[in-house]
Every structure is written in C-alpha cells, then in structure tokens.
Amino acid sequence: MRDIPDYPKPGVVFKDITPLLADPDVFAATVDAVGAPFENDRIDKVIGVEARGFVFAAPVAYRHRAGFVPVRKPGKLPWEIEREEYELEYGTDLLEIHRDAVHPGERVLIVDDVIATGGTAAAAATLVERLGGTVVGLAFVLELEFLHGREKLPGRRIHTVVTYS
Ligand code: AMP
Questions:
Q1: Which structural domain, as residue segments, surrounds residue 148?
Q2: How many CA atoms lie within 13 A of 90 on its CB side?
Q3: I want to staple 101 with a disulfide (CB 3.0 to 4.6 A). Which of 22, 69, 82, 146 is the partner?
Q4: What are the residue ranges of helices labelled H in the chain?
C-alpha cells in the first residue's frame, strides 16, 4: 500500500491499495486474512461496500460459499432499495441495498477495504439489520485507528488485518 497525501482533498492521507491488489501473492494472502476469523462461522451473505469493498468481499464470499451482496452509492441499484444516510467529515452521504438482498434470519459478514470514521460500516450494518439479517461481524483490510471507527460499532465483532495508529 502507499500513502497519497492530500487526496481526494487537503488533509486526507489516502491509502492506495492498488499495489497490494496487483501482487498475486499479497492479494491472495490479504483475501485469506480478511475472511480467516470467520472460517468456522455460518455465513449466508458477504456484503461489499462500493467500490473497493467489492474487491475483497467477492472472493471472501466465494471462499465461504456464501452469496455476495453489493451495498452501493445512491442511484446505482436498479430494483427496490432500502437507504441509509450517514455522516461524512463534511456533510452526509447515502448507501443503498436491494430489499431482497438479505432475507430475515440470514447471517451476514460486512467487508470493506478501510475503516476510517466507521460511518460507512455502521450504515451498512443498519441496512442489513433493517432487512432482518444478523451481522456476524465486520472485516477490513485496514483500520485507521486514530479516527476511532470502532466507537460507531459498539458490541460488534470487528476484524482488521492491518492497523495504523
Ligand atoms: P468511514 O466511513 O470514515 O469509515 O470511511 C470508510 C470508507 O471510506 C471506506 O469505504 C474507504 O474505502 C474510504 N476511506 C476513508 N478514508 C480513507 C483513506 N484514508 N484511504 C482510503 N480510503 C478511505
């Protein structure tokens, strides 16, 4: 991974994961590490958060023989949706999920590349629970610990592969 200062705006250090994705061994090891703690859990669906979450959630779902479900930015999903608003550093944003993507009682793992302030992950968990799913846990490649994302996910099972403190 490499740090890109002041991207996409001044003051943000963007964690660019594209070198990790391009390396066959590192990519495979990272996918394995993201899903490993949940190997013995029954997982029905793995949620990927647009867009970089898709890259890890899909292979984790395949390994678990679970279904893959995209949680997307507004206006991207073609069918009936549930929508959740969440806070950004400045302002708010929306996440959407198809209404039939998770069935009541299904066990769900949420996957994204980075947990920063935790708002995105908390919104994804809210959407899953609104559809009647159970959030088994949340898994991330990278945690930016200094942004205290875990505080938005109290009591949840959280797994991160690499932590920046
Ligand atoms: P947050 O809701 O603050 O936890 O932000 C998490 C989402 O924003 C994830 O989907 C990440 O892909 C993205 N993100 C936030 N901060 C960064 C960062 N410094 N580098 C790369 N991606 C980030």
A1: 2-164
A2: 4
A3: 69
A4: 18-22, 24-35, 52-64, 119-130
For 101-131, the pLDDT digits (tens) are 999 999 999 999 999 999 999 999 999 999 9
Active site positions, annotated: 52, 89
**Ligand 1 binding pocket mutation candidate from 84, 114, 140 (most atoms within 8 A of CB):** 114
Specify the 3-state DSSP secondary structure of 66: coil
Residue 114 Cα, ligand 1 centroid: separation in angstroms?
5
- The phi and psi torsions of 69 (rounded to 5 degrees) equal -130, 125
CATH of the domain at 119: 3.40.50.2020
Query: Strand 2-5 and strand 13-16: pairing?
Result: antiparallel
CB 69 within 8 A of CB 48: yes
Ligand 1 centre distance from Cα of residue 131 (Å): 24
The whole-angstrom separation of Cα 81 and Cα 84 is 10
Helices and strands in the chain: count of H runs, count of E runs: 4, 9
Asked if 99 contacts 79 with a C-beta cutoff of 8 angstroms, the reply is yes
Q: Judge if pTM exceeds 0.85.
A: yes
* Number of domains into which the chain is organized: 1
**Residues in contact with ligand 1 (CB, 6 Å cut-off):** 12-15, 49, 52, 112-121, 144, 149
